[in-house]
Design goal:
The protein has 268 residues and is of the alpha/beta class. It has 8 helices and 9 strands. The strands form 2 sheets. A 7-stranded parallel sheet has the order 5-2-1-6-7-8-9, sandwiched between helices. It has a two-stranded antiparallel ribbon with strand order 3-4. The chain starts with 21 loop residues before the first strand and ends with a helix.
């Protein structure tokens, strides 16, 4: 008979210790990706970041620095070389954060078909190819692995000026639910969807400090997210604490955005 005084191991929360784990963050050299990299470094992981060009400064935390491997996530041969290099260096891959992406402002009626195709290729097709390459490695590992797609609030509400980007991110959310079923139980797939995040490029979207503050005031939390807010969410979702979360989409948005009708209303 079970000892009633012994703690149930299912209720003992494991620490977020990633020592010995190998983690890849695509686009992890700046912005949200760099914040995610710093969180995993602080937790003891061996972190690799990739991008088309080496940054002047690599993410650092806890006395450790990320490794850089040059790769263009839009090119399949480049991805194959990236994952082959990871296996050659470390022999395993435990977590992939599918972060690389983005889009400049462009109205849908004047943007070219080539522009739209490029945005969808970067934000939907490339993450699928990254996930395929990662899954092939993780399925061979007894411990499997976790693939986290970085989504966006743009997938869940209108995204004027970045319509193709919002559509691609909606595709990412759907994609993760399907891959979570296909690749279970060895590989866990899910999405973390940020709201508005303050990065080194925030001024391109919101203007000067007054503009950023005005945008932050529309968020219930009273501020924009930091890249580390998103990194901490990834740290949790990739951990044993979230081992039953698969196909999920975790919103990290500070409570969302206040509905426009509240500002327009003339009632008390």
């Amino acid at each position: 008979m079970a000892d009633p005084h012994r703690a149930d191991p299912r209720t003992q929360a494991p620490a977020l210790d990633y020592s010995g784990k190998v983690v890849l963050i695509t686009g992890g050299t700046k912005g949200i990706g760099a914040g995610i990299a710093r969180c995993f470094l602080a937790a003891g992981a061996q972190v690799l970041v990739c991008g088309r060009q080496a940054p002047e400064v690599l993410p650092e935390a806890g006395g450790a620095r990320a490794e850089f491997i040059a790769a263009d996530v839009r090119e399949l041969e480049s991805l194959k070389a990236l994952f082959a290099e990871i296996v050659a260096r470390h022999g395993r891959l435990d977590v992939v954060v599918n972060n690389a992406g983005g889009a400049p402002h462009a109205l849908a009626d004047t943007a070219s078909p080539r522009f739209h195709e490029g945005i969808i290729r970067l934000n939907l097709i490339a993450p699928l190819h990254v996930a395929q390459q990662a899954n092939a490695i993780m399925q061979r590992q007894p411990e499997g692995g976790t693939i986290i797609f970085i989504g966006s609030i743009s997938a869940l509400r209108p995204s004027p000026g970045t319509a193709a980007y919002g559509a691609a991110k909606a595709g990412v959310v759907s994609l993760a639910t399907s891959l979570a079923v296909e690749w279970a139980p060895r590989v866990r797939v899910l999405t973390v969807s940020p709201g508005l995040v303050r990065t080194e490029q925030s001024h391109l979207h919101f203007g000067d400090e007054d503009g950023i503050a005005a945008v932050a005031a529309t968020i219930p939390a009273g501020r924009l997210a930091t890249p580390e807010d998103i990194g901490n969410a990834c740290l949790f979702m990739a951990s044993p604490l979230a081992s039953y979360a698969a196909g999920a989409n975790l919103l990290v948005n500070g409570g969302g955005e206040r509905p426009a009708f509240l500002a327009a209303s003339r009632t008390d």
